Amino acid sequence: MRLPPLTCLALMTVACGSSHGRSAGTPTPAAPPGFAGLPPGPIGTTGAARLLTQGTFGPTLDGIQSASTQTYDQWFSAQTTAPPSLLLPQVPQSNSERLVPWWTAAVNGPDQLRQRLAFALSELFVVSSSAAVLVNYSQAVVAYGDLLLQNVFGNFRDLLDLVSHSPAMGQYLTYFQSDKPNPATGSHADENYAREIMQLFTIGLVMLNPDGSPQNDSTGAPIPTYGLPEIENLAEVFTGWASNPIPPHQIGDEMAWEYDLDYLHPMAPYEAHHDTDAKTIIGGVAIPAGGTCESDLKIALDTLFQHPNVGPFVGRQLIQRLVTSNPSPGYIGRVSAAFADDGHGVRGNMLAVFEAILTDAEARTAGTASRLREPIVRFTELYRAFAATDVAGDGQITESQVASYNGLFNFGESPYWAPTVFNFFTPDYARPGPLLNAGLAAPEFEITNEYTAVLMGNQLEASSYQYIDGSGMQHSGADGFTTSTGPSSVLLHTAEWEAFASDPGALLDNLNLVFMEGLMPATMKASIVQYVSNIPASSPGQRVAEAAFLVVSSPQYSVQQ
C-alpha cells in the first residue's frame, strides 16, 4: 500500500524507603492521596477524549461519555481503585505464551490508567526478553510487569526498591550474583546496574534545573552528575544479591547462591559476597564500612531518590510517553514540583505525578502538544474503539502479527522486548531534517522508517477490514471481500458504530472524537465523507470499516496532538 512520506509526519510534529519488596501475587497497595491541584468541574466531551487518549490504551465511545460527566478527581479515583489485570496468573509455566495476556489486558482490561502508565514505566525501567537470560522465561518478565502494575500509583522510592530487588532486573542488568571485588584475582563488582540506575532510571548525566534545563559551569559546559568513581562505588553496593533460595536451601547457602534461580520472588542478600568496605557515592554521600546488603542499598536508593534531578529527569520522560515529545520548561517544572511535593508534603508520589502530567494545561489544551503515536498504541486504540476480540469471542487478542514478537521486527515494538536498556527509542532522538533543525525531539521517529511505515500500514489495513458486522457476518479483506478467518484472527465489532453509518458526516464526527480528539482537519473529513458516501448504505459495516481505516492510516492521526 502507498503511505505518506515520513517527512510529512515530521513536519506535522513541528507544526503542531521500603522493605525487601513483594512478589507479584501480593495484594496491590492502596494508592496515596493524589495531586492537590486537580481542575474542578466536569471533564467534558473533548476533555474526556484527550484524557483517555493520553491516559489509557485508547478511548471508546462509552468511555468518553462516562468520563465527560465526571470530575478529574472522580475519574482518577475510579481508575486507581479498579483491580489490576495481572499477567502472571495467565502464564502458568516458565515459558508459557506471555504476549497474548499482555495485549488482552491492554485492550480489554478495566484498569486502563494502570495499564497505560505501567507500560510507560516499562519504557523507563526497561527489562527485556531480548536478553538471552530472559528469552525463555516468560514468567520472569510478566512478574516484573505485574510489579510495575501493582505499584504504578505508589511512591517512586518504593518503586526503586522493588525494581532493584527484582530478579528479572538483576539478570537483565547483570548484578545478579555480582560478587565483592577480589584483589587476588583482579575481579571487581559488576557496574552495569550502577551505571543504568543513575543514567537512565533516576538522575541522568548532567545536573538539571527544576524545569529540566541543564546546569552549566563557569565555562558554559553542562555539569556532570557523576563520574567513574561514583559508578565503581555504587557497583559495590549491589554486590551480594542472588536468587531467593529454593528449599531445602536457605539464605546464605553457597548452593543457593551458585545454582538457585527463583524469578517470582525478590532477590535475597548473601552477605558473604557483599563488599563491606566504605563507599562514597553520588553527591559525596559516604556509606560507612561494615554495612549489609540491605543497609548499603537503603542509603544508596535514599540518596538517589532525594537527588534534585529525579523530578525533572523522570517527569520529562513520562510526559513524552503520554502527552508530548517536547514539553515546555514550565510543564516540566510543574510536574517536577508535584514530584517534590504532592501538596500533602510527600515526595515521589507517582499518582500525583501522573495526575499533574495528564491535567496540566499543556495536556488539556488541544493543539498545544504533539507526539508520534507508538506502533503498539496505534493498534490498541483501534482494537479498543471497536471492542476487538478473537474469533472465539472470549476477549483474547491473539493476532499473530501484532500480539507476538513479530511486532518488534515489523513495527519496531513489542511489549517488554526492547532491543536494549535504552528502550525502543531514546528520549532525545531528533530525526535529521526539519525536527533536528528546529531543535525538537521526536523519540518515536527512531523506529520509524520506510520499512516499518509500510508494514504498519499494511497491518492496520488488515486489522481494519477484519471485522464482524451487526448481522453477525465475518469479513476479512478490503472492498467488501469476504473470506474465512482463522482461530487466531482478531475481529473488530462494528455494530455499535453502524448506528452512525447512514449519515457519513455523523460517522466521521464520532471517529474524529475517538481517534483524533475532534482535531480532524475539515478537508480530511470532507474527503472521507465523500468516499464513504459512495459505499452502499445497505453495507453499514463496510462503511464503518472503510472510514476507520482511512482515519487510522492517515498522517494526521499518526501524530497525537
Based on the model shown, name its key terms.
two-stranded antiparallel ribbon, single chain, disordered N terminus, mainly alpha, four-stranded mixed beta sheet, 561 residues
Mind explaining what this structure looks like?
The protein is mainly α and 561 residues long. It folds into two domains: 23-368, no CATH class; 375-560, no CATH class. It is 44% helix and 4% strand. It is built from 26 helices and ten strands. The protein has helices spanning 6-15, 45-55, 61-68, 72-81, 99-108, 112-122, 138-151, 156-165, 167-172, 192-199, 228-237, 254-259, 293-306, 310-322, 329-340, 350-359, 361-364, 375-385, 406-411, 434-437, 450-464, 495-498, 504-516, 522-533, 540-552, 555-558; strands at 241-242, 268-269, 279-280, 286-287, 371-372, 389-390, 466-468, 474-476, 490-493, 559-560. Strands 6-9-7-8 form a four-stranded mixed β-sheet. Strands 1-2 form a two-stranded antiparallel sheet. Strands 3-4 form a two-stranded antiparallel ribbon. Strand 7 and strand 8 form a beta hairpin.
Binned strand content: under 5%
Alpha carbon gap, first and last residue: 25 Å
Poorly predicted regions are 1-25
Percent helix:
40-55%
Q: Strand order of the main beta sheet, please?
A: 6-9-7-8
Structural domain count: 2
> How many whole angstroms does the radius of gyration measure?
24 Å
Count, helices: 26
Overall shape: globular
Main beta sheet, described? Answer: 4 strands, mixed
Give the overall average pLDDT: 92
What is the strand tally?
Answer: 10
SS content category:
mainly alpha
